[in-house]
Amino acid sequence: MSLFKSWKSDGAVFAIWKVEETGGELRAMLGDSLPYDAELSALRAESRRTEYLAVRVLLKALCGEEKQVGHFPSGKPFLTDQSYRLSISHTRGYVAVALHPSAEVGVDIEQVADRVLRIAGRFMCAEELDGETEAVKGFAGDSRTSTLYYMLLHWSAKETLYKLMGEEEVDFREHLRVMPFHLQQQGDFVAGAYKSFPPASYQVCYMVHPDFVCTWSVQAKKYF
């Protein structure tokens, strides 16, 4: 078993699975009552098949039974038995799942990698970029690591909000905003969504890890 971490927040259950198994090992953890093999045949990359299976194994671990996942035309996942609202995320070596019995929920996990440094200006506004110096003061890490975490948390938080909003054509730089916060190993901050009126705010929780950052939120939004 590779259940890396699980926790509860605002009535939701969240979990991260560290993918150390092969696709074959993961498939052996599942039965034959659901159309896994047919869905797997549509996935060309071995990495995608492994992620697919890891998510289903994690759902089984959380729910005590296997669950079939469907997708809306937008790509948003859902459980076909409608037992929980669902959010899924994956990055290199990990998958994350969030479940809530009634409220929309979002989770995102992102690998710690340098690419974010090159593209930060595409999804962060000037105020967010300028806030880095103050945000990372006192953080227990070198300056490069602090910068990576700070920028990745902005990307990840906006991915989480996008999943919660359920809207199309969202511009991460123009429509979503992370409010100033003080970087810690685990914490929370407020993020705003401005695409629709009135604009809404969300509490986004986060953790940082040498391999990844993870953000999550439950749809308990307030208006500015």
UniProtKB/TrEMBL annotation:
One Pfam family recorded for the sequence: ACPS
Protein source organism: Phocaeicola intestinalis
Coiled-coil segments: none
GO molecular function list: transferase activity
Protein name as catalogued: 4'-phosphopantetheinyl transferase superfamily protein
UniProt keyword annotations, A-Z: Transferase
Annotated 4'-phosphopantetheinyl transferase domain residues: 105-191
Keyword Transferase: yes
